[in-house]
Amino acid sequence: MNIDKSILQRCKKNDKNAFAELFKFYQNYLFKICFSYVQNEQTALDMLQEIYIKLYKNISKYDEKYPFHPWIRQVAVNTCLNEKRKAVPLSISLSNEDEGFALEDQLAAEEDTQKEVEKHDMARIIKQHINSLPEKQRMVIILRYYEDLSYEEISDLLKLPLGTVKTDLYRAKNALKGRLCKAVN
Questions:
Q1: pLDDT (tens digit, 9 = 90+) per residue, 154-185?
Q2: What is the CA 154 to chain-centroid distance, rounded?
Q3: Could you list the residue range(s) of the whole structural domain that residue 31 is in?
Q4: C-alpha–C-alpha distance, residues 54 and 84, integer Å
Q5: Residue 83's closest CA among 53, 51, 57?
Q6: Does residue 84 sit in the same domain as residue 115?
Q7: How far is CA 118 from the centre of its chain?
């Protein structure tokens, strides 16, 4: 998922039509990132607007030697983290209306109806238990398994040592495993 470099070059020249194309291309992706952090549609839309403003102001800083997708993701995640610091603690919605999470996509493969229901219930239970994790653990779980980032990318993104990220993820997975085992028993 990468946009045509000619659009980026036009954006650097402040071409408003190019920005419109860029924003349209990344709109759904950026909204999903924002929504995964705040679990509120209106707040996610507000954050999306803030990301657009940051992109408009900082597109000249983008180095075209590198892929654009990781750069725009960095801007989005940093915006989300800043919003998270200002707002109430991060939560993952327990409603059945949210979509777009990688784990649910993996769990909800096309099979018979009974298995679909079981997988949907399992996804809901997993989300509930992720929501109950401490904020630091919840963040690394989301970045690793919902955003599919590597340990190194999470380390860079959160500006934490690699060992801390690995430890936080290890603890988060153990806590989640313990909570899920209790829920099953």
A1: 888 888 899 999 999 999 888 888 887 776 66
A2: 11
A3: 1-88
A4: 17
A5: 51
A6: no
A7: 25
